[in-house]
Amino acid sequence: MGTYLTPIITRTRIGLRGLAGKVLAVDALNSIYQFLALIRGPRGEPLRRSDGKITSHLVGLAFRYSRLAIDYSCRFIFVFDGPPHPLKRRELEKRREMRKKAEEEFYRLISLGEYEKAFSKAVVAVTVDDWIIESSKRLIALMGWPVIEAPHDAEAQAAHIVSRGDAWAVATLDWDALLYNAPRLVRYVTITGTEWLPSKQRARRLEPELVEMSVVLEKLGISRRQLVEVAILVGTDYNEGVRGVGPKKALKLIRTYGSIERLPESIKKSIPGYEDVLNIFMKPIVYETYRLEFREPDYEGLEHFLVDENEFSEDRVKTLLERLRRAWGKQLQAHLDMF
After folding, report:
1. pTM for the full predicted model
2. Is 315 annotated as ligand-binding?
3. According to the annotation, is 337 in a ligand binding site?
4. Is 81 marked as a binding-site residue?
């Protein structure tokens, strides 16, 4: 879920054209969760093949990113989470419990025929298993894009990749990439341009937004370390935060006192061990060396994987393969034009 910083972060709408020709480091699980929540059948159930294995994520990965590749000449580096940091395990356990309750409510509503209400629970009830992760990695590799597994948090590794100039921005909905010092972050990289809001029972129109670290810090008048301390006061995946303190109040506190260390003891006692959380963001564990190889898609392998193994429509897969052929051709031509 990441840290809630939305009210204080400056964003610029750039549209899909603002992504043209860019390489994006994608927070893979962030995208996969979106597909699992939103790509569903008429009764709110995820799409499945005949043996029951879920395929909603494969539909989303194949068709969103092939469209972005052909229409906007984008390329992608998909970064997956590694084993969770010990401090994050408690948060992950809370999320599992929340999803379990939402899943139970989802099936109760389905049994009553209340499909619209059930869909709102489906968005929360999403779970990811080994099949979903491994099948996603296989599909991405067949499409010719690099797959990297981070030591811990995918956003930390993605931020590092962008910082080194191997990608233009981190593509994620979460703000944690900023805390990990990503120079640029792009939100809402989507073709359909809508997001379902469960609490309001409606969808809203979305457009890609660019967030630049230098702009954020200048507007807020704080340092990156202070931004991380604002996040710690609000609460992160690694700590609970201070009760009753949201982004605006946290920002005011840090501006007033300069740091958590100088806060009144009545506030500071609510975040024991904050130094460990600060260190996670300021000195993230990442791989300094990684392999980035953009390859021509394995068209035959893709057809076998999607049609034969996962029961996709042959016509839809032919459309996908044609897109990828054209996108690869455009990429080769652009490379030749450089010489």
Report:
1. 0.88
2. no
3. no
4. yes
